[in-house]
Amino acid sequence: MDGRLPSHMLVTALLRRMNDSGGMGMVLAKGDPQGGGILVIVIDADRRERVLERGIGPDGRTALIESTPANDILSYWQRRRARDPDLWVIELDGAAAERFTAETILQH
Question: Strand ranges (DSSP E) for 1-108?
Fold first, then answer.
């Protein structure tokens, strides 16, 4: 076991932090409660949407990776879910969305 918290707990913590800060967070698709990956759609203050996931950075360490979908984000995450039904997809709308994602997803 790698000591990471189950995915459902990370998602719950992230949504709670976002909602408690005055932003909005919602689950678009539920994944595997224990070990599903977490894809986060972040809506910036300028209303730009970005996709963030935990991945391996250039230095070989765990990092928050921004995906750049070739088409719209809805199609992107739906295709990803079709290939990986264990994947969680959440959307965060608020000023601290990226910071909360990094702190919650990478630290646990």
Answer: 24-29, 38-43, 49-56, 62-67, 88-93
